[in-house]
Amino acid sequence: MQDNGAAQIYPWQQSVWQTLTGRFPKIGHGLLFYGKKGCGKEAFAQYFLTWVLCLNRELKHAPCGECSSCLWLKSDTHPNYVHITTDEDNKKANAKIKIEKIRDLLPFVQQTGDGWRVIVIEPAEALNHASANALLKTLEEPGERVLIILLADHYLKLPATVRSRLQYFALDRISDTQALDYLSHYLPSSDTVEKTLLLNLSNQMPLQAIQLAEAEWLSKRSEFLKDWQKLVSEKNMPMAIATKWNKALSFSDFVQMFEYLLCDLICVKLNQQVKNPDLDFTRLAECYSLDSLFAIYSDLQQAKQFIGQNVQSNLVLDQLCIKLMNIEN
Q1: Which of 10, 234, 242, 325 has the lowest tally of Cβ within 10 angstroms?
Q2: pTM of the model
Q3: CATH fold of 218-326, please?
Q4: Residue 111 — very low, low, confident or very high, per pLDDT cuts 50/70/90?
């Protein structure tokens, strides 16, 4: 299971943890843990399933970490735990969980024996129509002491038939105070302005904010904005600027930075709040119409697909800088 860190319960997840452990085992057999990327739902799910399978869970509301079950999980050899995700050789953004993987669950679900059995499916949005329908039968007729946990960023992307058979638990309900307190603990040297910026860029998800704090592009935003303004005002040297940024950042880092800046330009045009309050977009926003900014965004999404098809990133950046220079208000 992909994880934001060690299996654990984050401060903003305590109430869900208390609800689940307090009601167990009368919690139903199908659970949906959902929340924005960076909320820690993977770590929560791992901690919860470890507790469910722990042989000493009756002693405390935490897995003991020492019984045979806990040790099996640590070594990834637990016979009563199955993790289902997209194929390792097909990790594209639109990769799907194939029906065969769901069908293969049947013997695991129907077997009898001591203890609980746990299945984790993530990302649940990767279930296609066929695999979702196959999962319905398992959800409708589970074996005894079987727990099926689905993880999703956007639960509404799941078929309504699947959602109706699950209990939902949001794991991204984080107050401003909780988010700032968590960042203060892990980024003690950051001031309030920097922490607010990081939370803005991470949709108020502190785990994502901590990762962003280490991003190389974060300190280069202002410099790129100046180069962008130079492109527009002087109408020359697009190839030189493209070459500079192709060397300065990896393509994925550059795209992440550029998307944030482009979206803020669109926000300025729409009189909405920007995510980069430390930058001034006023002059640059005056140079573009809203339609032209949306066109740039569309071109960028297409460029990302080209990179996925092994087109060289320097060629993509060359074309992008030429478009930034030539698009008129």
Answers
A1: 234
A2: 0.84
A3: Zinc Finger, Delta Prime; domain 3 (1.20.272)
A4: confident
